[in-house]
Amino acid sequence: MKDLTLIIPTKKEVESLPIFLKELKHFNCVKLIVLQKEDLKTIDSIKNIPDIKILEQSRNGYGNALIEGINAVETEYCCIINADGSMDPKYLQLMYDECQNKDFIFASRYQKPEGGSDDDDLVTLVGNKFFTFFGNFFFKLKISDILFTYIMGKKDSFKKLKLNNYDFRICVELPINAKKLDLVYKCVPSFERSRIGGKKKVNAIKDGLLILSEMIKLLVKKF
């Protein structure tokens, strides 16, 4: 997988990132850490880890980390995989193989038989089911987990999306834009592990309202 870059968005992952990078050391691909330059503790925690690249964001936000990471990719393929260890790298080879004749591969916690999550709670489960239904019904998506950004794709396909949301709204912007451009994608099952540090960066209510506003905005543009 020399032609693959792992885009690893990171925010205050002093506990998680060093452990997660050790898990990735056997993967022969580019590991691109994207984080805020003010996150000095995290930067210091990985300073002695070889064969990684660090990209300091020019602006803050999860979406911004993905956009700047995608723009920095030089390999043919790239994959978003979070620094908290919840996205299991054991699926990378399957996603890579499936991506050879697809634009994107979406990992899904709700795809049988292997999908599942140690991290979901009732609020996030209900919210994800709602937003996934919204996307499938109004935008004709065929996706089972719209908010899980464990996504592999061709670099050129990612860049075609012209993403512009700097926060968690990018989660729905990405598959909706892919559908609008008639890009080819597939969902594969994935089990979400517990976060190494145990802390979510998502505010379920606040970010849920942002995501809903984005989907309504995109729906209005559609009609």
Structural write-up:
α5 (122-139) packs parallel to α8 (204-222) and α7 (170-180) packs parallel to α8 (204-222). The strands form two sheets. Strands 3-2-1-4-7-5-8 form a seven-stranded mixed β-sheet, sandwiched between helices. A two-stranded parallel sheet has the order 6-9. The chain has one domain: Spore Coat Polysaccharide Biosynthesis Protein SpsA, Chain A. The protein has eight helices and nine strands. The protein has 223 residues and is α/β, with parallel strands linked by helices. β1, α1 (16-24) and β2 (30-36) form a beta-alpha-beta unit. The N and C termini lie far apart (41 Å).
Descriptive key words:
globular, single chain, 8 helices, alpha/beta, Spore Coat Polysaccharide Biosynthesis Protein SpsA, Chain A, 7-stranded mixed beta sheet, 223 residues, two-stranded parallel sheet, 9 strands
Please specify the SSE layout and strand pairing.
Elements (H helix, E strand, L loop, with lengths): L3 E6 L6 H9 L5 E7 L3 H6 L7 E5 L4 H11 L4 E4 L11 H7 L5 E5 L7 E2 L4 H18 L11 E4 H6 L9 H11 L4 E5 L1 E2 L11 H19 L1
Parallel strand pairs: 1-2, 1-4, 2-3, 5-8, 6-9
Antiparallel strand pairs: 4-7, 5-7
Helix pairs in contact: 5-8, 7-8
What's the short story on this structure?
The protein has 223 residues and is an alpha/beta fold. It contains 8 helices and 9 strands.
